[in-house]
């Protein structure tokens, strides 16, 4: 008698014979490769990401402002596009991803957010879906809300959406075109080490990046380091890409009341307007806020969302501002734990910039991985790190790292009020600083002056726009955002000493 399991094995074997891989089929034709590209040093203009293909752009906001693109105002739920070169300082108008004149690229370091994902488990958009599903047949909807009678909640949770996978693949391709030339600096037989964390969307982001950067198959072209995220009790889990902090939950809980207050202000008209078109369900301010989130999540998941057309320009600006102050007080300059959570990555950066192994283990650095030159090389010219976002991860990556790096230009306009949008340009806007697929990049360059003297510098880009570093001791203003490398390293060593990771006689971060 043939078992069902034997039948499966037999079918799989037959399939393998019918569908052999390319390596078995052969006949590949010519496969010679060309020189590695370095567009940031060879092109007259920098590449500029400005669209979200293949997503359908949201409908015109209620009121008919055709020039307003709400997808650029979804805060941390916006897909990343290139920021204008002068986004963060007016004197940086000549700055972009291009290497400054008379400079040679030596190294590139990147801290990157994962691509677009489904809602996280702690978000409440699914509860709105459940409320509507439970009221099926018990409500009527007219006008702009007429779609609700056939709408069903269909989003997953936590993992990358198809568009999110594309974002990371495209990033890998763009990095190969921008920085592929750095691969020539690796000695024969030495493979790059890319890092990520163990959460599914982090690993898949890293693998899609690798597929774009190396092409398929990519498995034997680099080493993928996966650091445990959310380690259970008794398992060593120090992780600079996803540091943990018991005081973080306090920051998040403290933001709940201000969010509710702000929603009652900026969504007052929208809630009344929507409830007037639906009989049988009474939507709260929080429900209507979730409708705005559904617009963003459905768009990046299935390409289009009917929820987007329900809101005015002012209401989308209010939604974006909710993201701004949530992240300001949860993970950035308004969060007491932010610098302490980001300092471990800064220690790793100093080790790489100075090509000196870490020897002191007093933060979120991992003494097992970071002390091993195979898992933490300090002489690698290409270093991408994919980190996460949400309650237990990139929370805590890029935004807290920017605080630890002392990029105070983002804090220039000061603490954000939670009952109104400040007048004028804000220095911290989540859709510019932390959208899906954000890339924080450090370029190390060697520059020659008019007297033929050479000097190494470091410059920082956030989604292709230079970050001003003139507040950092020894840096000063520079139209390309450069800082002498020695000065920057000295300032970061001092900064690390200033940040109190675990205060004596007090709860540790």
Automatic annotation (TrEMBL):
It holds the Pfam family His_Phos_2. SUPFAM superfamilies: Phosphoglycerate mutase-like. Keywords: Hydrolase. InterPro entries: Acid_Pase_AS, His_Pase_clade-2, His_PPase_superfam. The keyword Hydrolase applies. Gene3D superfamilies: Phosphoglycerate mutase-like (3.40.50.1240). Coiled coil: none annotated. GO terms for molecular function: acid phosphatase activity. This is Phosphoglycerate mutase-like protein. It comes from Dacryopinax primogenitus (strain DJM 731) (Brown rot fungus). The lineage of its organism: Eukaryota, Fungi, Dikarya, Basidiomycota, Agaricomycotina.
């Amino acid at each position: 008698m043939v078992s069902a399991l034997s039948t499966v094995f037999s079918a799989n074997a037959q399939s393998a014979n019918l569908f052999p891989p390319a390596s078995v089929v052969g006949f590949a034709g010519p496969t010679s490769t060309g020189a590695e590209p370095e567009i940031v040093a060879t092109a007259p203009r920098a590449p500029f990401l400005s669209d979200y293909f293949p997503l359908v752009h949201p409908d015109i906001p209620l009121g008919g402002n055709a020039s307003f693109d709400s997808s650029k105002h979804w805060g941390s739920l916006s897909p990343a596009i290139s920021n204008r070169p002068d986004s963060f300082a007016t004197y940086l108008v000549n700055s972009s991803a291009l290497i400054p004149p008379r400079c040679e690229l030596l190294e590139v370091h990147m801290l990157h957010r994962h691509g677009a994902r489904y809602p996280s488990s702690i978000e409440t958009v699914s509860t709105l879906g459940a409320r509507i599903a439970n009221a099926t047949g018990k409500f009527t909807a007219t006008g702009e809300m007429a779609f609700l009678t056939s709408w069903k909640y269909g989003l997953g949770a936590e993992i990358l959406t198809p568009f999110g996978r594309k974002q990371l693949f495209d990033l890998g391709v763009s990095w190969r075109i921008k920085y592929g030339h750095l691969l020539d600096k690796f000695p024969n037989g030495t493979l790059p080490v890319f890092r990520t964390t163990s959460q599914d969307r982090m690993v898949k982001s890293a693998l899609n990046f690798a597929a774009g950067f190396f092409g398929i198959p990519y498995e034997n072209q680099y080493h993928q380091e996966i650091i445990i995220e959310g380690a259970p009790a008794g398992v060593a889990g120090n992780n600079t890409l996803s540091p943990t902090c018991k005081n973080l939950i306090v920051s998040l809980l403290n933001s709940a009341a201000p969010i509710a207050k702000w929603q009652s202000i900026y969504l007052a008209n929208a809630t009344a307007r929507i409830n007037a078109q639906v009989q049988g369900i009474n939507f709260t301010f929080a429900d209507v806020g979730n409708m705005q989130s559904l617009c963003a999540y459905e768009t990046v998941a299935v390409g289009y969302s009917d929820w987007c057309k329900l809101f005015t320009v002012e209401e989308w600006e209010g939604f974006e501002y909710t993201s701004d102050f949530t992240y300001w007080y949860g993970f950035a300059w308004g969060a007491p734990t932010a610098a302490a959570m980001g300092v471990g990555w800064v220690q790793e950066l100093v080790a790489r910039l100075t090509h000196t192994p870490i020897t002191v283990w007093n933060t979120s650095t991992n003494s097992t991985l970071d002390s091993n030159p195979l898992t933490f090389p300090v002489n690698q010219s290409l270093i991408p790190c994919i980190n996460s976002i949400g309650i237990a991860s990139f929370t805590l990556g890029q935004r807290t790292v920017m605080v630890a790096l002392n990029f105070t230009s983002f804090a220039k306009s000061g603490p954000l009020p939670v009952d109104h949008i400040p007048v004028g340009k804000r220095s911290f806007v989540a859709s510019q600083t932390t959208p899906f697929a954000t890339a924080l990049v450090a370029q190390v360059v060697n520059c020659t002056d008019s007297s033929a003297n050479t000097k190494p510098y470091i410059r920082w880009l956030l989604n292709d726009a230079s970050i001003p570093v003139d507040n950092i001791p020894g840096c000063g203003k520079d139209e390309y955002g450069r800082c002498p490398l020695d000065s920057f390293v000295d300032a970061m060593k001092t900064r690390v000493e200033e940040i109190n990771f675990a205060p004596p006689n007090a709860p540790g971060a």
